[in-house]
Structure prediction request, 252 residues.
Amino acid sequence: MSERIEGRNPVREALRAGRPIRRVLIAEGTTGDAVGEIIRLARAGKVRVDRVPRAVLESSAVSRAHQGVVAEVEPYRFRSWSDALELARARGEPPLILAIDGVTDPGNLGSLLRSAETAGAHGVIVGQRRTAPITPVVEKAAAGALSHLIVDRVPNLGTALGRLREEGLWTVGLAASAPGVIWECDLLAEPLVVIVGAEGKGLSRLISERADALVSIPLKGAVGSLNAAVAGAIALFEVGRRRHPQRPSDGP
Prediction:
């Protein structure tokens, strides 16, 4: 049974990454540089390309933002978080893993995956329960990141975090009520798991208790909370900033 990737960037990145694709459907009259590159990549990979009436895509699209391009692919293949640790070692970098605790909104999940990939995370772990599955909506929100990212769907997130701690990684959870703020956390340059909780509810009690540290993101406005995907992105890029500080300018 095939699944679908919808949208120009997700399909293009899937082709670039060599994901198994059965065929690419392009709506008649759809043009542009991205579409031309998709066709070239598909031909180079010997992937079938069919031009179809736009109504065919409109009637079957899930994400409602297919941009005239849909790929029929093999089901998404999860990988082990141990592969992410191997990737970090191969790059000579301290591991950075994003753990997602109960994010059920597919748009937020996709955005978190996109932020993880662009921030340089080596992998992502999600629980099998209480987390959205990988769907075309998630693929679209991730904007192609899933084709380049190691994602592990684990039976028990708490157990996985315990095993990562045994591998030498620290665990830092985001919690709006935590007294410590992320800017002051000393663990961000260490081998690290950043844990993001569910929309509205935050981290579950068991996951909070397993974390080495809980930190908040200080807010200055009238609104009292951040979207889970936004909070995760801020945390991931703060880790990147801490690990790769800008060198001071030589100028005045």
